[in-house]
Amino acid sequence: MILAIDIGNSNIVIGGIDSSKTYFVERVNTNHRKTELEYAVNIKDIMDLNGFSLSSIEGSIVSSVVPPLTEVILSAVRKLTGNTPLLVGSGMKTGLNIKMDNPKTVGSDLIVDAVAALKNFTPPIIVIDMGTATTVSVIDQQGNFTGGIIFPGLRVSLDSLSSRAAQLPYIGLDKPGRIIGKNTIDSMKNGILYGNAAMIDGIIDRMQDEIQMKASLVATGGLASSVISLCRHKIHYDDALLLKGLQILYEKNR
C-alpha cells in the first residue's frame, strides 16, 4: 500500500490505500508548532494502531494547502520511510483539464478530489468538500474542471457566531432532530447544520441550472457526514475520496 497524506488547514488526513482497498483513514489536528519528528511519531502511531508496519509502505504522496507545513510533513515521511514522497503540484501529471482563469492557483485538494470523482462517477459531477472551508466544484460532461464556489465551513461559521455573541455558547455538531429548536443550543446547531444543508441543496440546483444537466453528486470531508444526510438531494458520501485521488496520482507519476 501507499501512504497518502492531505495537509488541510484544520486537519491532516493520513491514510493507507492501494488500487483495490482503503486500509485506514485517520485525522490529526493541523499544528504549525509540531516538528517533523512529532509528525513522524503521529504517522507511526496511526500505522501501529491500525496494525501496519512501516515495511508495508511501498511509496507515499502528499497534497497540501498549508505551505509552511509541507516540508515538515515531507521530512517526517522521509524520516520514517527513507524515501521522498511525491508532492501534488504544478508539473504533476493529473489527466485533468482545468478550465480556470489561472489553473495554477487551483487548490491541490480540489484537483485530487476531481481526479478521484472522475474515476468513480459519471460526469458531469458536482463535488462537495466540507472542511475548514466548504468547496463545491463542477466537472463538466467532457471531464473538464470548470470552477466552483468556496464559502466558510461549518466549524468556522459556528466558532465565529459563538465568539461574537456573548450569550451564545460553543457547542457540538451532533445530528439534530426537528428543525425548530426549543433552546439556544438546539437553535444554533440546527441553524448551522440545516442552514448548510439548505445552502448546498440550493447551490446544486443553481449549478445544475447553469450547466443545464443533472450531475452526479459526491461529498467528502470531515464535516460532510453531519450535513449530507439532511440534504434533499441524493448525495454520495465518500470519506476516502481524497485519498483515492492521491492513489490515482501516485500511479500516474511514480
UniProtKB/TrEMBL annotation:
Organism: Lacrimispora amygdalina
Residues reported in the UniProt entry to bind K(+): D129
UniProt cross-references to Pfam families, sorted A to Z: Pan_kinase
Residues binding substrate, per UniProt: G107, S108, D109, L110, T184
This protein's name: Type III pantothenate kinase
Similarity comment text for this entry: Belongs to the type III pantothenate kinase family.
Gene it is expressed from: coaX
Top-rank EC class of the record's enzyme: transferase
SUPFAM superfamilies xref list: Actin-like ATPase domain
Compartments (UniProt record): Cytoplasm
UniProt function note: Catalyzes the phosphorylation of pantothenate (Pan), the first step in CoA biosynthesis.
Cofactor note: A monovalent cation. Ammonium or potassium.
Pathway: Cofactor biosynthesis; coenzyme A biosynthesis; CoA from (R)-pantothenate: step 1/5
Domain of life of the source: Bacteria
Substrates-to-products reaction catalysed: (R)-pantothenate + ATP = (R)-4'-phosphopantothenate + ADP + H(+)
GO molecular function, one term: kinase activity
Complexes and interactors: Homodimer.
Record has DNA-binding as a keyword: no
Residue numbers binding ATP: D6, I7, G8, N9, S10, N11, I12, V13, T132
EC number(s) stated in the UniProt entry for this protein: 2.7.1.33
Catalytic residues (positions): D109 (proton acceptor)
Cofactor(s) this protein requires: K(+); NH4(+)
Keywords: ATP-binding, Coenzyme A biosynthesis, Cytoplasm, Kinase, Metal-binding, Nucleotide-binding, Potassium, Transferase
